[in-house]
Automatic annotation (TrEMBL):
<dbReference type="InterPro" id="IPR036010">
    <property type="entry name" value="2Fe-2S_ferredoxin-like_sf"/>
</dbReference>
<dbReference type="InterPro" id="IPR012675">
    <property type="entry name" value="Beta-grasp_dom_sf"/>
</dbReference>
<dbReference type="InterPro" id="IPR052353">
    <property type="entry name" value="Benzoxazolinone_Detox_Enz"/>
</dbReference>
<dbReference type="GO" id="GO:0051537">
    <property type="term" value="F:2 iron, 2 sulfur cluster binding"/>
</dbReference>
<dbReference type="Pfam" id="PF00111">
    <property type="entry name" value="Fer2"/>
</dbReference>
<keyword id="KW-0830">Ubiquinone</keyword>
<dbReference type="InterPro" id="IPR001041">
    <property type="entry name" value="2Fe-2S_ferredoxin-type"/>
</dbReference>
<dbReference type="InterPro" id="IPR006058">
    <property type="entry name" value="2Fe2S_fd_BS"/>
</dbReference>
<feature type="domain" description="2Fe-2S ferredoxin-type">
    <location>
        <begin position="7"/>
        <end position="90"/>
    </location>
</feature>
<protein>
    <submittedName>
        <fullName>Ferredoxin</fullName>
    </submittedName>
</protein>
Length: 90
């Protein structure tokens, strides 16, 4: 059995990071599992309600979102971190 790397999610660089396990379906699921309140609706990248600012790091989308996403923003419901990330909830 191979250990899969765990990525760190920083919401505030001053606080302890949250850990995103490889089996977690999305950043949104990881935040919810850690009792972080996040606005969302569709969970599929259609509505854009879960948008956040990606301050540092890289993500990959499970599927390309249909909602408009500005440069520097991500949708939490359909993305996973590729590296450790710093995000700001909007």
């Amino acid at each position: 059995m191979t250990d899969r790397p765990v990525k760190k999610i920083f919401l505030d660089p001053e606080k302890e990071p949250l850990l995103h396990a490889a089996h977690s379906p999305s950043l949104l699921a990881t935040l919810e599992a850690n009792q972080v309140e996040v606005a969302y609706q569709c969970r599929e990248g259609f509505c854009g309600a879960c948008r956040a600012k990606l301050c540092r790091g890289k993500i990959a989308y499970n599927q390309e979102p249909l909602a408009f996403v500005r440069d520097g923003e991500i949708l939490l419901c359909c993305s996973k971190p590729v590296t450790d990330v710093i995000i700001k909830l909007v």
